[in-house]
Amino acid sequence: MNECVKLDMDTWNRAELFREFIGMTTSIYDMTVRMDVTNLINSCKENGQSFFINYLYLALRELNAIPEFRMRVHNGEPYLYNRIDCSFTVANNYGYFVNRSMTCPLSSRHFLWTPVMQHKHNGLPSGFVLS
After folding, report:
1. Is 0.70 surpassed by the pTM of this model?
2. N or C: which end of the chain has fewer CB within 10 A?
């Protein structure tokens, strides 16, 4: 279960920064980096696994390791979640794009995909199973 706690503005070490930035119109993080993923690509090919799925898991694992990325604002108050989940856009088998959401698994063991499984009814790529 995804749980959150309201942060105490009297004791939270980032409360002053929060108060400064909460009034801004936009607070979106956007980042572009060059990343060598050669080893990941090779591992996926050797094991018959999806690069996209493995990259998604690794990115979510690292984002969840940083408390500030698990914070959300509700009614003007900051909350810290025990995990963040994700939404993404994928091409389906019918020639158009669909949005999908998934719960972030806490370990890679829960993020394994069986390449022969396919959900044709929702058009997800082969090997992509949402639980």
Report:
1. no
2. N
